[in-house]
Amino acid sequence: MTDENARAMASIPKNTADIASADPRSGFWHRAVRSGDWFTWDRIGFACLCSAIGFAAGLIWMLAIPNTYGAPNGTLLMDYLSFWLAGGQALNGTPELAYVPVEFAAIQKDFTGADTVFGFFYPPTFQLLQGGFALLPYKAAFATFIVLTTGMLCLACRMITGAWLLAVCLILVPACANNAFHGQNAALTAALYGFFLVGIERQKMILAGVALGLLTIKPQLGILVPVALIASGNWRTFLSASVTTLVVAGASVAVLGAGVWLVFWQQAPVAAAMMELGGVEWGKMVSVYGGLRLLGLAHGSAMVVQVVVGLAAAVCVWRAWRRSEAMAVRSAVLVGGALLVTPFALSYDLTLLVVPCAYLIRDGLKSGFLPYEKAVLALVIVLSASTSPLAVWLGLPVAPLLPLLVIWLGLRRMDQAPRPLAGIDDPAQTSAIAG
User: Fold this and answer.
1) What are the boundaries of each domain within the chain?
2) Residues 63-94: pLDDT tens digits?
3) What is the DSSP string of 367-425?
4) Half-sphere exposure (Cβ direction) of 14: Cα atoms closer than 13 Å
5) Which of 62, 107, 64, 112 is nearest to 86 (CA)?
């Protein structure tokens, strides 16, 4: 075991006996909820082991064994199919067909023999990236994309926490598994968010801007970033991100042609109409808008509330990035706000919450957790892949509560200094991880 992993493990009680010896007077409520001492390494390790086994078994079942997600010809009908076929159109010299719904639906039906189709609403910069994966057979491309992007997120978590053990634990949370099984890109966008925030923290402003410029493959997740950069006066990052965006967009024009961008913008009303009319199930969204539509509100009323929540999130981001330099504060408020401000975010996008969780856990292990902080983090992590079933099956749109809780954790750390609690945060253990 490496020194970094040993230090990480040393700061958390090994088992329930350690908790009792640390503070025999503490009751269950104090241990499990207020102090969070219930979260011992034996329980965390067991949960991560089960998650890893389920993660691997699920991907093997999806990619190697005929299953209910397969088309009549055996093609896996998951979100990644649209990415791979869009990349294939780039290779074929007809990239614009990915942005013509009727044409793209016909391409998918010809390939799968099924009526299930997936839209492709990403900019040509993301299509250009998928062109490389389209050189591989479909299932090989699926597996490669998930392994590479999840590995990038693991690296970002390692850069944040300083420990590979914690990084591996973080990529085994339910949200990451949900993203992997869909073949989606949330691990990629979360990794780019992580690299951006690490760059800011380490004063590598140009590199932070490069990561941010690449994040424009999913532009709705970066709406509040300019607010953060202006509030903190990070003009070099702002300039670097702008240049990177132009360079990446220029590369897509050079390779795919300028016409594909025109077709992409012409398709934008289709994406808006799908959201408004329920073409994407509202229960599968994590936005305030999706939750309100599920509860029966009309489009106009839901959008008004969505805008109000977005403005409130922008104020929180401005306040956090203006007043604090602590990344546990900045990351929590910015990433949580990013998920609240956009009306179009789906369940797998909750993978982004891994990044602020990494910062909060790192700082909690170093300087102590606030009361109830570990319990709230555990709640966010456990529910990160359960919001869609709760919404679709029970009509409970709880998803917006998760980024809201993360914002609350960030703002709370800005206003309150953490103080050590019994057990996990005693002075000897705190000095062990710091040293």
Assistant:
1) 47-434
2) 888 877 888 888 888 999 999 999 999 999 99
3) H-PPTTHHHHHHHHHHHTTTHHHHHHHH----TTHHHHHHHHHHHHHHHS-----TTTT
4) 6
5) 107
